[in-house]
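Quick check before the chapter quiz. The format below is the same one you will see on the exam, so make sure you can read both the input and the output lines.
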Amino acid sequence: MFALTGCSSKGGSAGLGALGGAAIGAGSYEYHMKRQEDRVEQDFKDGKITQSEYDIRKDQIERDSVFR
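Here is the expected output.
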């Protein structure tokens, strides 16, 4: 019984580790997307890009985002 519980615990730990890794990966991806969005907004405010370029880039960011 003890050996069976030990194996089950390791399997559960590996599963939780994989889920935690996936969550961290998704979080860092969203952080990157937020930085891209901030950069586009700043470029638009600074006059580096036109309204149409701003709209295109914002749309791309929103489509690439996992949580939007």
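If your answer matched, good. The two ends are 46 Å apart (CA to CA).
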